[in-house]
Amino acid sequence: MIPSLPLNKILAALVCISLVAIAALNQYHYITSPDPLVQARSRLFSFSRGDRYFARLQSWYYFAQKGDWSTAAKLESDLYSPDLFVYKSQSQPSEIRKSLTYLTSKNALTVEECLTIARYYLLLNDRPQAAKYVSLAYDQDPVRPDIAKFYLQLSQ
């Protein structure tokens, strides 16, 4: 004779098995997902403090690359500022404008400065100004193949 289990124990066992299956599927999704934000968020729950910090840093980079600086700013309080300084100085629109103001106020611009200004204008989606500074760089050094290629791409 098979002993009969009470219905509530059977239901509790089914609920437990279902929860374990859902957790396993969720973990599988995090591991196999190609989305960098999902992968960074899965690392936020690591036991390693370094993994958690790296996950926060990757989340910050994700939002900064997407141009969502307000969300990235919310993550900055948990991050070490030198880790962010270089990227912010070269990618954040307000920092780019400061650099542009400084560089364009110079009287004589070198080829590298002209290319830097052009890159900054491209980051700000100002293609005509970028073309102007690439043209200045091309006039100064028409032999360099990288400048010639850049000049031809922006001229089209």
Task: Give the SSE map.
Elements: H1 7-32, H2 36-43, H3 49-65, H4 69-75, H5 81-91, H6 93-104, H7 111-123, H8 127-140, H9 145-155
- Proportion of residues in extended strands: under 5%
Strand count, sense and closure of the main sheet? Answer: none
Unreliable spans are none
Number of domains: 2
Q: Your description of this structure?
A:
The chain has helices at about 5-30, 35-45, 50-65, 70-75, 80-90, 95-105, 110-125, 125-140, 145-155. The protein folds into two domains: about 5-80, no CATH class; about 95-155. About 75% of the residues lie in helices and about 0% in strands. It contains nine helices and no strands. With about 160 residues, the protein is mainly alpha-helical. Helix 5 (about 80-90) packs across helix 6 (about 95-105) and helix 7 (about 110-125) runs antiparallel to helix 8 (about 125-140). The protein is elongated, with a radius of gyration of 26 Å.
Please supply descriptive tags for the structure shown above:
single chain; 156 residues; mainly alpha; 2 domains; 9 helices; 76% helix
